[in-house]
Design goal:
The complex is a heterodimer.
Chain A (H helix, E strand, L loop, with lengths): L20 H9 L29 E7 L3 E7 L4 E6 L6 E7 L9 H7 L10 E3 L5 E8 L4 E2 L7 H8 L11 H10 L12 E3 L2 E4 L5 E4 L6 E7 L3 E7 L15 E6 L15 H16 L4
Antiparallel strand pairs in A: 1-13, 2-12, 3-11, 3-13, 4-8, 4-12, 5-6, 6-11, 7-8, 9-10
Chain B lengths: L3 E5 L4 E6 L4 E6 L6 E7 L9 H8 L9 E3 L5 E8 L13 H7 L10 H10 L12 E3 L22 E7 L3 E7 L15 E5 L13
The chains are: A alpha+beta, B alpha+beta.
Amino acid sequence: MTMEFTSPPPPPAGATSTATTAGARAHARAQAGARAEAMRTVPAASATQLPDGVTAESVVWDETVAGGGYAHCVLSRGTEVRLTDLDGDACANLLLFDAHDPSERLNVADTVKVQWQAYLGPGTLLLSDRGRVLASVVDDTSGTHDALCGASTRMTNEARYGAGGAESASPSARDLFTLALAKHDLTPRDIAPSVSLFKGVRIDEHGSLQFLAGAGAGRSLTLRCEHPVLLVIANTAHPLDARTAFTVSPLRITAWAGQPTDPGDARWSATPEGERAFLNTADHLTARGDR
Amino acid sequence: MSPTVHDIPALAPWSLVVPAGVTFTIVDVHGNQAVDCLFYNADDTDERYSAPDTIVAQRNLFLTTGTVLRSNEARPMATITADTCGRHDTIGGACSKESNTLRYGHHTSHQHACVENFLIEGARWGLGKRDLVSNINWFMNVPVEADGTLGIVDGISAPGLLVEVRAEMDLLVLISNCPQINNPCNGFDPTPVRVVVGDPPGAPAAGSGA
């Protein structure tokens, strides 16, 4: 990437001294227009470098999350969310909740059990604990994901990197989840097992875990929200990433308005279990008047 | 602590606080009976069993002798000290009325399920739905094939096989004696199980300094 980023302005001198309110205000306002590598695009419709076929006017959320950062957004049904591993070392630890009733949330055990499949990929449905589809994977150029290993903790990051707090250079996913959820009045009780995107795991015949380091820079995965959701992402190191230097690169998130999967889509009836999950979702949203 | 015997009827929930250092033994009395289980720190139930943290720490999916069962803060909650079954599952989660509709059809939506047991028993301790996460399935067999295909298949347990677990903190143990009748986890015939709390036969008494 060749973007230029500006630094905060130097301490002012003379008449613009921050010793006065006028000077402090002028100093603060002098930052207008500054850019950082990790920031949200506001307004979202001014985002550039969009996926093929996506118009700027349809973009509802565009943000780059630094390694060690987090992001969260409430998204309406039908929204498509593309996550891109810009430089090859992003790890998107993901949680999903019903936007209106967060007691309904992603259930990774039901997700793998109901679909008879431990590995995430194109067509995977991310299921709630109530037998419904929160989101589906509509595109995946990475193939290295994980639904089994969960998220790093402060203790494990302290052991590996020497620090794991949110203020440190190597924040744990659990600390970042705690912060993101607190913004929605949720607590650590609401942190259930998460999935990881762009860093993966495979299981051998004896049950041993093999870490997948990722598929490289520029790989992406696109989710479709099949339900109104609160989406939470912590971009921080996978718990099986054995490198002793905290190594996490930026994650790009771009979301645009779209349509949920409907009965005319082959994905709706790809499996009998998935079809019943889509039917449950449609009935639930119809009953509560949220279509 | 002299052992106490707790017989859990088929289909039923059960719970108890087991003090740190005390061993409890779960006996598959009739064979191939899945026992769904969650742990909570008895002093702060926000700290609870974490299947992912347990899996990551031992770099393996299966639970057996030597497995340290870890919390969502990655701390040891309990250790498996003996296991005559061979291995146990922790990725398959608990059956629920809701997931049963996906796996088998809507005709199963009024059958009893493990989540119902967890909720009704958990409510006695102030726990609710937000406190339920991926659990342990003692005596349940969930292989993962090379392409990622997984499933609950015929069990490898048998009458009288058991697993011994030592609490590493004061532990609220929440159990659902699985009522599932639509897959082989209970041999299609849910049966009672037994929990013996206290030192196993032949072990030195707790606090003996041995």
